[in-house]
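Go through this fold for my students:
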Amino acid sequence: MQPQERDELQSMCPGAAIELVGHAAESCDFTPSPDTSREILFVGNRYDPNIRGLKTFLRRVWPSVRRSCPDAKMVVCGRVAEAIRWAPRGVELRELVDDLSSCYRPAGIVVNPAPHGTGQAVKSIEALAHGRALVTTEIGVRGLAPGDEPPWRMSGIGPKMAEIIVGLLMAGAARHSLERRAHEYAVARLAPDVIYAPFLARIRAAAEGWSI
């Protein structure tokens, strides 16, 4: 659920106690991406927004990235790869992998070109938890509070997104700064003890009135 959906449900049930519990993620130890990384990662299940977003990205963004950065490489992990019948040059389809951490480590950028969707974008949360530079659409971070300085870059699926990606691939220092902010954000806002705290507090408060 999104905050807007929680608010709508609360208006429908004004007497109910409703707590919105987001998706939590255990953050990995922070390790910046390789300085020379030209690798872009996309992770997703075979789900309509993933398929549409990836296909649009490959059509409208990837050619521009490759023209500006010919050694750029894109790795697509997860069952979403099954929906891609032909991979453009520089794109590797891996489908199911045993250890996603091995895919995040060499990645300089994680993309989530979600055109629509429901709930929270788990792939965006996991990218932040891995301390990676996230480039996404507005939908891809819906429900995540950006803070004073968003730890991601946001754009529509088009030339601007390509420009952002190329800039981050070519500027290691700027990318590493964004990675560190992503990791700090995940630790401060997405850790299980942070995400579940309000819900657990509500349970504890209710339990105080119980008798056995």
